[in-house]
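Help wanted!
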Amino acid sequence: MELPVISNNAPAAEGGGCSSSGCGTAPDGLAHLPDHIRAKVQDHPCYSEQAHHYFARMHVAVAPACNIQCNYCNRKYDCSNESRPGVVSELLTPDQAIKKVLAVAAEIPQMTVLGIAGPGDPLANPGRTFDTFRQLSEKAPDIKLCVSTNGLSLPEHVDEIAKHNIDHVTITINCVDPEVGAKIYPWIYWQNKRIFGIEGARILIEQQQKGLQMLTDRGILVKVNSVLIPGINDQHLKEVSKVVKAKGAFLHNVMPLIAEAEHGTYYGIMGQPEPTQEMLQELQDACAGDMAMMRHCRQCRADAVGLLGEDRGDEFTMDKIDVMEVDYEAAMVRRKAVHDAIIEKLEAERGVAKPKPTDIPEGSRPVLMAVAGKNGLVAEHFGHAREFLIYEASPAGVRFISHRKTELYCGGMDACGDGDVVEAGASESLLDRNIRILEGCEVVLCSKVGYEPWAKLEAAGIAPNGEHAMEPIEEAVMAVYKEIAATGKLLPQADSLKVA
Amino acid sequence: MALQITESCVNCWACVDVCPNDAIYQPDRDEAPHFLISADKCTECLGDHADPQCAAICPIEMAIVNELGEFLNPPGSLTGIPIEKLKEFGLWREAA
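Answered by r_m:
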């Protein structure tokens, strides 16, 4: 029998007593972090896979200008890797941003984090960005501040970042080799000149690496985002992961390239392929040996509001905020109570050592399952799921792999009044599409599933399962895995043939 | 001697912050839906910088023109997208 690990040291390679999501036996969790860092990230939805089920974030779009060009971005819209393309954010002044943050924080007490992520580069807008941070740290000291940057202007702003108590910074680093960089960044604006090609990429990389080192030297947590661009930096990202880890970055988030012709980006127009789910997972797994990997990123908009899987931005447009009355003193009291309750729940979960599953035969193969989840529970109707969370169950336990976005095919009562299907033809093709994105999964767990999708899922070899509604996701996935194991279907082919 | 901003402008503010003459302003909606350059203040950066700063940072091709109407950043010059492709996607136009 294994003893639970109770020291604060890094657990052995195969994991230890950590029970939080994304930890367990997976090498990519946050279990290795010392307590003071874990305390910083435990309520940050972008840094902790476990936290993202409960805590919300928001971005304010106060930073329109940019100082570089990326081939996956078209400035006519927002950056396609930060935002859903084609939808222009409502640009805010710092004063409007403060008003919005206070309104959202009062309305959504689970909101812990305010980030500035664009739509340009926050540090190319230092006046607007730091004015927002300065005002917020005075008026809402209970909100954590973060900033994302391409890194070009990072070194000159590190002291200011430290001064405003911003303890989370994300740098997008797509390469450490200028020749690779020249294929991603056509130009940068540097010291009053536009600099093209390899020289521009060289300067950008130099500034990113310098800024990263300066931040980690000051104890500021750094997450590195990388866009996976097949044929350009796919193999190179393993090197990037090693280099940024050595400089003290604590989390690496490899995101898939978004490149569609209608977005008008260089990659979109030139037909640059996007990576497949398999490519992304393979690369994340390859990097995970060196580095903690983030797998729950939703590539959200520069003005997103709410939990990571949702966007409540529409509820907080400036015209709506103007008529809201906010008593922030009272809101802070309520917020603290809500945060404490969630943290207590998370700590309780963490305190319970999750034993390795016992009754799974050794050598059983892993199974991928899709979950229509909400707040960490199997809580969403199949047709209402905006995304599926993909989990892998194996004899070692359950681990989170990724999320896959869907298109809603069932608008429910709101959209169709008495529950009729909106349009037979349209709903049909969307349903087929949603089933296609579940490729590779053998089970889909949801709170409910209709008759038509049930039949189609079964026909596609994916078992629909509504028997674990409202149960915690990981427990439900393990329970289903055990049920499958009990049928003997998980044993190697040769063995099952012998049985047959 | 002054540069001008065209309707291609996306109001990203990048030029506003780098103009050494504070020549770039946001007009009333009726006048223009995008930033404009004050002809009185613009020096095309002569004496301050080797290149006009608005044109050096502007991410949008065809958004800055000189007095002759010539693009300082012609189609394809910033993105590297070939002219044929720009035409195919309706993203190309000739200088005034």
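OP: Thanks! One thing I noticed: Chain A touches chain B through 24 residues (CB under 8 Å).
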